[in-house]
Structures are given as C-alpha cells and as structure tokens.
Amino acid sequence: MRSALGGGLGLRLELHFSAMQKTMDPYDAPESTPRQHPSCSLKEYFLAATPLQRRLESVRKQATSFVPTPPRRRIPQRSQLQEDVDPQKVAFLLHKQWTLYSLTPLYKFSYTNLKEYSRLLSAFITAEKQKGLAVEVGEDCNIKVVFSTLLGMKGTQSDPEAVLVQILSKPQLPSEDREAKALWTGWFCCVFGDGLLETVSEDFTCLPLFLANGAESNTAIIGTWFQKTFDCYFSPLAINAFNLSWMAAMWTACKMDRYVAATEFLWSVPCSPQSLDISYAIHPEDAKALWDSVHRTPGEVTQEEVDLFMDCLSSHFYRHFRIHLSATRLVRVSTSVASAHTDGKIKIICHKYLIGVLAYLTELAIFQIE
Amino acid sequence: MHAVMMPQKTGKNYQAQNRPSQGSSSYQTNLSACEVKQKPSDSKENNPMQDDEHADDQDGDVLQIAMEYFEKDPIRSLRSKDKILEKHLITVENVAWKNGLAPETIDILLNVALSGRFGNAVNTRILKCLIPATLISEDSVVKAVSWLCVGKCSGSTKVLFYRWLIAMFDFIDHKEQINLLYGFFFASLQDDVLCPYVCHLLYLLTKKENVKPFRVRKLLDLQAKMGMQPHLQALLSVYKFFVPTLISVSLPVRKKIYFKNSENLWKTALLAVRQRNQGLCPEPRKLMLGPANIRPLKRKWNSHSIIPVLNSSSHTTECGKKEMNLSEYLSSSGSLPLEQLQRFPQLLENIHCLELPSQMGSVLNNSLLLHYINCIRDESVLLRLYHWLSQTLQEECVWYKVNNYENGKEFASFLDTIIRAESFLHEGFYSCEAFLYKSLPLWDGFCCRSQVLQLVSWIPFNNFSEMKPLLFDHLAHLFFTSTIYFKCSIIESLKELLQNWLLWLSKDIHVKPVTDSPLDTSLCESMNSVFKLVHYVGWLSTIGMRLESNSTFLMHFILDFFETACDIYLIYNLPLVVLFPRAIFYSALFTLDASILNQLCYIMHRYHKNLTAAKKNELIQKAKSKLSFSSKTYKEFNCCLTTMVGCLWTSKPFKKGIRFSPETLEKLGVEEHKRSLNLVYHSSLLGYAVSFLLQETPEEKTINLSSIQGKKWNLYLDYLFSEELQGLKLFIESCIRRSSVS
What we know:
heterodimer; A: 370 residues; alpha+beta; 11-stranded antiparallel beta sheet; two-stranded antiparallel sheet; 10 helices; 15 strands; 21% strand; globular; B: 742 residues; mainly alpha; 4 domains; 36 helices; 0% strand; flat
C-alpha cells in the first residue's frame, strides 16, 4: 500500500543546525586509579565511588524505565567525521547490511597488538573449522584475518578508535594478482560513548557497538574468540518499535541534498499462520514536511515530537485504510539516511550522517549492556 | 497483541471442530453415559460446563477412558467400530487442542497411529492432534520410528509422521537416541516421496560426527539424479558447514528457504499451548520488548553451558609477550595455571602469583576462586565479573524475552549456581541487583520463583527509599495478587534479606573505627533504611493478614520476620528498635493457635529485653546520645505490654487502647469478658486448661475452669511451661513480677 501525504502539510520550516560545539573532554585529566582505594572486602569496595559503583548508580537510575532515558536528542549533524577518516573505508561501510550486537568492554585490548591479534584469530578460525574433522587436511586454510583501525570514526576525542576485522580469502595461486575477497567483515565502534567510559577503568576498552556482515558461523567463531580473549560478552542488539520510531523521526529530520529512497515503514500484524506486513511508503519530502510541522525545538528531537510524528502517520493511514497502525508493530524503517530492522539489522546509506546514526546505535548498545 | 489473539484463534478453531460433532445426539448421550458410569455421585452433569476447572476435570476423565480404549487389543477395537472410535477421537482432539497431551498419551497414540490398526484417515487425525502439553519423550519417537521399519503404515502416514517430527523437534526431551538412528533416516532418503522431509529432519539432526564421506557421496549421487533440489542443498550446506573440505561443489550462499513449512499444521496450536502454559506477561510491555525471534547467542555460538569453562588467562601467555623463549618460560614458572589449582592450601601458597581465568564468569563454578575474588582488590576483576554476569542474566532470562520459555530449567539452574556462590561468599552480586531491577517488573511471580526470591534476599545493603520504586513496589504488587504460599515465601525472603543486611551492617560497624562525631550520618541513614524495610514488611503483613483473613499459616511467617526484627539491638548490636504494627500484635494476641501466642510472647519478651538494654545504655552515654530512641517507641511498647498483661494475666484487659462500652458487652452476652482472655480462658489455651484439670482430677465429671486460681494457677503455669510454651515462660518471667500475684 502506498499513500502520499498531500499538500495540506504545506508548512515548511528551515532547520537551523547549530554549529557543532566543541565538546569538553572530561577524561583528559588522569583518572584516579581504583587500586588506590584501600579495601578489604568486596562490599567495602563498593562504598567508595569506584567505576563499578558509578555504573550501578546509573543502572538504578535507568531501571525505572525500559527505554533509554533522554527525552530529547540532537538531530544528527552533518560532517561530524574527523578529518583523518579514510573515505575509502567509509564508503566500504555504507550500503551494506550490518547485524548489530552490543559488546561489554574489552579487557586488556591493546591497539598496538593488532598484528598479533590477526595471527591469533586466523589460527583460531583455522582450528575451529578443522575441529573434529574426519579427513586429514594437508593444505593451509586459505583465509587471512586483518585487524585495522578505522581512524576518526568516533564522536569525541575520548571515544576509542573503531576497529575493523576482516576475513579475506587468500588467492588460490600465489601468482594470481586479483584482490583478496572479503568473506566476512565486522567492526567495533564507540561514538559519543561518554556514559560508558565513565564507568570503567583503564584496563578496559569500550567499543560497545559491534556490526557484522557475513556468514553467521563466522560471526560466531570470531565472537567466541573475542569473548575468550578479552572477557567480553556479545548480545544481539534488537531495535524495538519505540527506538525505530525515534530513528524514523531523527532521520526524517536530517537535511538532505538529495533523497535517494522513499521513507518507508513496515508494520507487522501478528496473526497466524502467516503474519501480515503493511508497508507504508511516503515521499521523503512529504515526510520532511510533516516532520517540520510537528517540530518545535531547533536542532533537537523530543519524545513528544516523535510521538506526534508517528501519530500523524498512523491517523493519516487510518483515514485511508481504516487500519489502526497503533495496534500493529513497527518492524522496519527505511529512509535516505539509513534503514533499520527490528531484528537488529541496519544499512547506512548517507555518508553525511554516518556518525549521527552510529551515535544513536551506540546509545542503544550502551543501554543494553548497562 | 500477539498473545491475546492466539488463544482466541485456537479457541475458535477448537469450537469449529466440535460443532458438527456436538450436533450429533449420539455423541452427547454417549458422553454423559460415560460420565455417569465414571462418577455416579457427581451431580454436576446438569450444569453445562460453565466452570472451567470442572470442564478440565471432565476432559481429564474422558481422556483417560479414551486412552484405555486406544490401548486395548486391536480386535475388539475394530469390532466396536465407528461411533465409539469417533467419540474417543474427538475427546483426544479436544484435549490436545485445548491443553496439549502428556508424554505418556503421545506415546500411546503414536503407537496406535503407526501400528496400522486403523485406516489412514484415523491415523492422520491422530497424528494431527499429537500436540504436547510440555515435552515429548525421546523413547516414544524411537518406538515410533521402529514402526516405520515394519511397513504397516502407508506412505502418506509416514510423510505426516515425518512432518510431525520436524514440527515437534524442539519439544523432544533428548535427542541422543534419535541421533543413533541417523543411519536409518539417511537410508530413507531413497524414498522419493519422503526425501524432502527426511532431508529436513536430518538437517535438524546432523552433528559433526554424522558427516561421513560415504554420506556425502550418496547425497551428491542423489543430487545428480534428482537435480538441484533445495532440500538436498540444505543438507549439503549443513555438511559443508561442519566439514567444508569434504564438499567441493559450490552451493548457493544466500538461499534462506530450503524447506516447505512442515510445521504449518501445528504452528497455531503450538504457539497457543506454549503461551497458555507459560502465562506470558501482560500486553503493553511487550511492544517494548523487541522482536521475539532473537535467540540467545549461546545456542548458536558453540558453547554448551552458560558458564564458561575455566581457562588460564591468555593475556600473559599469548598476547602480552609475543614470542616467549624457553628461559623466560621457565622463569615465569612461578605462576600457577588455574587448571592445577585443586586444594585450599595450594591457593594460599600461590595467591600472589595466581593466573586469573580468561573469562571471569568461570569462577562461579569454582569455590577456591570465589575465595580468591573475595579477597582481591583488583577492580577490573570485579568489573569483568559484573559485565559478564549482567549480560548473561539478561540474555538468558526466560521472561525477559518473549517465547523464550523452553530454557526455563537451564536458567533456573544457572540462578541456582549464582545463589550458591552468593551464599558461599555471604554477599550478593551487584549484577544480580541490577538484574532484579530490570526484570522484576516483568516477572510473573511464578517462573523460577524460589530462585528469584533468593536473589532478592541477597540484595546488597542499600538505601531503602531508592530501592523501593525499583523493587519493593513491584514485589508488593505481586504479594497482594498472589496465593498465600507466595505471600509466605516473600515474607520469608524478606526476613533473610533483613538478616543479611543486619549482618553486614553489624560487621561494618566493627570494621570502622568508632568515630565520636555526634553526627554519624552514615549510620543514621543505614538505620533509617533498616527501619523502613521493617516498616514496609509490617505494612505488607497487615494487608496480607486482612487479605488472607488472618491465616495462622501466614502469621507464622510474619512473626518469624519480627523475631529477627525485634532483636536488632541486642543480637546485631545496632542502635535500632522497630515495633511491629498494632494490627499484627492484636491478631496474634487474639489467635486461636497456641503456637502463635507463644511466638508473640517470645517477641514481646525480646522487645522488652532490647528496649531495657537500650534505655540502660542511653543513660550511661547520655552525653553522646547519638541515636536516642524516640519515646514513642517506648510508649507504644508499654501500651502493647499493658494490654497483653491485662489480657493474659491480670484479667483486666483494655485499660488502655480498645475500650468497649458495658452496653456493647452486655449485648454480646460476654458477662465474664474480663477473664475471657486470660491464660485459662484464652481461646488458644482453653484446651491446655481443660487437659490440665483432667490431669489433676481425672475422676471429676464436670470441669470447673474458674477453679484455676491461687496455688492452682501456679501449678497450671508450670503445666503450660512443660508443654513447650517457652515463649510464654520467658515472657512471664521477664515482664511480670510473679510475686505480686498470689
């Protein structure tokens, strides 16, 4: 079903993006190391304001709600990428479907050991793939693992550098000159992860958002290796309807030079045996016009605005089709900025808002691990 | 939305199926005849099934008769023919669609369906309604497969059986035996009709060790014969996944749907049964919970148990130093690999050079390492454990995600492990506290009940007011809406929580150097938290007693709690005395049960001791008087004490407090009301008084209770004390000067 929002929504407001403020970096000052606290028992330990204690406090604050707390967020800003980002690498991240995971802080991860990690992980993958094999394999496993950093892929200076892991297939013949093909790609990042950074000590590296593209069996092997090596924990990061609505609103609010895709929503009607999906596509400019008419605070998105935006869409739909979308479940949102599925799949389309999208995903990942 | 709609849907199906048969009068009469035969005294037949429970009972009985019918020898069944068979089939179908069938029932019916005793139509109907209530036993499946070898059932029955097996695969309790039949199933691939279904089954069943070169060859032959069939490709892809080197053919990578949806026949029923069994949480929350089909990674990612296996840290050996030469290796021999740590002395000797496990979660299963983490000061160790435990709890929690109830047992045993570790360490984990905050609002109060309540009792000491909206308010909701047993369990776990808090606080006070500052705010705040906890339990108890109409059973648990609460000052050496609510005091005082009265006396005795000691201490340390008890507490207690002594001892009840006008008493016809609550006439002690008199003068025919006076009163008291009423004894000895009474 396709419906168009007509010209009744003629009200158009220009969004004025405030220039990005230079964020003060509170973590430049050396943090007092937790070992300085004298303590003699686990319990006493927590009396001091250790990172763990701070973390628990934030959990207590959050526990009252099931959704991330801030009732307002900034609209993703353009060109937040740092200068040193490799444009080729960024292009490589776009237009791919990524499966999202949240990841607890990595223990004793070191950016200087990436080469070593490449070696260890490729050995691990080879061992895993040959485990319990009935037949003797003489040849070397024809894969290669590469760890590298995605410089500049972060929100503030205190965010750790993003890490890219690739499994490449080695060319069968050494003489062959063709480029190694990526069998599997995954990357770890942290964009505006201040809240999490505050609660860990320097032994840990916080890269709470993990995105994978490739066979799930590979994700499993690599995830297992990371869990074993850095004592971290991967959980699939699903995006519930509430957060999808936020994404819809925030991405609609982004100012685009050119729209490449319709703004589309997918609602699922839970009925059996087969569930029924309702796809609701709107011309992106109409969506923007609707957004502008509900939008009040410049540069920010508030919960009320998100609710109002979605309510408007639902009531418009109801007028035409007599179906209450509020009784169904929002499962996918796609815009020209990015598209997200409730299963925890994301595809980022617009280069300009990459950091903005990642910032929100980081927030969701942190919410999940807290 | 989902959960609400499903049962309705099946409900309709179920009715629709029945309607034609209910129309037939023979069914009606047969059914009622059966009922009468079975339960001649049951007169409820006339009421059409209005009452659900009653309906369920009936279903059970009728089902039993039906099962007896199916179990009977084949000849008679064949002779008695259609109508009875039809009736029993309908019974089975009804129960199956409504509540699911027990494993034993499924066992019998599978046997019937595959043994070829009935025609195809009947077999089909039976197979279609084989919906488990909970699980299917593996043995039944193995037996059923053995029928396939006999060749008594038709091809279509075989197909249906395979489809059923695929649909129910997840409900089979074990799969080891079935996996042993792998070769048999594999041989069935020859059958062109069965092939797609057998492929699907093998796809589910295949383990790495099942992948053999000869099987690969066979599959490739089949593929050459039949062309690129999606089901064969699926099986090949599983093989290739396990042993990539064996299969050189290229398979389409992105193919998602290999199989026709075999379970469609049962899908609705299974969902409905599962949801009914588990009683999912109420609707509005669910939209927030995210998609149902996100499975925990553990099941997909290799590991067999939730808790990781103990391994020495890989950081020192692998990542830290790149290439370790032999001499370095030898010089580092000081460190002890965890795998070698077996006994406590070993831990003591090597505690300075112990290698930490690579995954901190593994300490949960190792008591030596629990000792270790209890005394180390490394924050990162605790953080690692915290992160791992928080995420694992969240990921595994069966009610946190929709439709995740199959793993309930595993989750419960995981919680048991955590609780064991907590009681071993005598302290709670912070992850568990955070987990409770997040998950308790969604908890149905049923799933893993004892584990959750134990976790509650291990919550580390905290500011009560902060915790109340996160935890105690939710607990109160559950308390008020649940059965009396649940109420008792909650009160009991709150008692344990209070004990744990008091122990920790009393230890804490002694560890800290005593500061003489007049404003010891932290202690004040701590005492305030404890006060609020006791107050909260008092509030719960008061309402609970009203809801359960003064149940003696519940009262026992409440008084148990106050037995701990009344002794805070003396036993835990903490400056706090909190009284129980008046409602609890009065309903314990007017009880019909001597043990309740006894417990009340004991608590009053302990309160008396605590308050006296506190008063004495206060007089000594008057200058400091950090925490003076409010005079209100003393007044309250004295009022209770006066009432109690007035009732039980001096027969002058209610000088203060409750007062009845003489007219009211006259109306009630209680002339001797003053005496009626004393030790002789008290409703809970009357029996003792009577048996005391009978013991004294067995030959007397009439019993004169008023004769228990003076000397006899003292003898009666000794008699009561000899009857194990210790609390009463302590109370009378400490609170009443007996010499004043003659």
